[in-house]
Amino acid sequence: MVWLQKLFTKTDNDNILSDKTDERDWLNLDPQVFGRSKIFFSTNQSIDLYELEELCDSVGWARRPLRKVKKALDHSYLVASAWEVRGAKTSLIGFARATSDHAFNATIWDVVIHPRFQSKGLGKAFMKYVIRKLRKDDISNVTLFADAHVVEFYQRLGFIPDPEGIRGMFYYPE
Amino acid sequence: MVWLQKLFTKTDNDNILSDKTDERDWLNLDPQVFGRSKIFFSTNQSIDLYELEELCDSVGWARRPLRKVKKALDHSYLVASAWEVRGAKTSLIGFARATSDHAFNATIWDVVIHPRFQSKGLGKAFMKYVIRKLRKDDISNVTLFADAHVVEFYQRLGFIPDPEGIRGMFYYPE
């Protein structure tokens, strides 16, 4: 099993080298897995919409109008991103965002990790980071709508499907 | 069966007496059901937090800190309310709100209709009003998390539970 060294547990603050200036949370990576790559998470790194589109392309998502993507990012409560730094190059390798009422509910959307970084523990660490950011703001509950094939992934992170019979429901335009 | 007269269909605009000044959508009510009450829906009527708390009390919801309720309302994309006008008195009888990224997703929360107005078609008309307001803004899909006993109610309105195996999931604080 490939892993990130004990990340984001309450006793492991020394594993996060927080840079207050640009709020980059650098990961302490296993070099046997990640080689010379450095990776950080951020909630305020500016995102190039074309680079985000490329990331979404890499996991096969349908393209969306960039104008609408920009609007959605502008009106998201949290925009989280994961970045690989390799030499002089910084590349977007993960993304997630959340809508919220800033009090009771936050809902996570558009979670994506580049295929090259999947199955390495990065998605788990990234979601823990997102949850931590939302919980820090005293938001009562965090929700999401999980595709069938990632329900177990989110369960392992502590998400409960249909708690007390609550069902996620969608209304699509006619 | 008790009913509201043909409400909010595309050919029935004359049933909505829109008052542009304060954006009240008056309902055309069956007097045999509603007597002398007049009812309107609004998305910009200012809401007294104590009156909202009373409404939530009437359906047995757990009380929430008003400070947090205010914050949630301030940061909701849509705050919809239903009002009964009887003589000189205007009372809050229904409420719903939605968070949104203003583009792809809106999520409806805190739907409540006063018990005195339940099973009269009002909840259905109110939700159609909420959906209409969200759809008007070109939001791609409208979601919600339905308690087990209202899943069928939302299904009749066109909401689909777990479409393509998508599951609603909740993360609660430890």
TrEMBL record, chains A, B:
Question: InterPro entries recorded for this chain?
Answer: Acyl_CoA_acyltransferase, GNAT_dom, NSI-like
In its keyword annotation, does this UniProt entry include Acyltransferase? yes
Transmembrane parts of this sequence: none
Gene Ontology CC annotation, any one: cytoplasm
Domain named N-acetyltransferase: residues? 39-174
Q: What is its EC number?
A: 2.3.1.-
The keyword DNA repair belongs to this UniProt entry's keyword annotation: no
What CDD domains does the entry give?
Answer: NAT_SF (cd04301)
Show the Pfam families listed in the entry. Acetyltransf_1
Its keywords, alphabetically, are: Acyltransferase, Transferase
GO molecular function list: N-acetyltransferase activity
Q: Write the protein's name.
A: GNAT family N-acetyltransferase
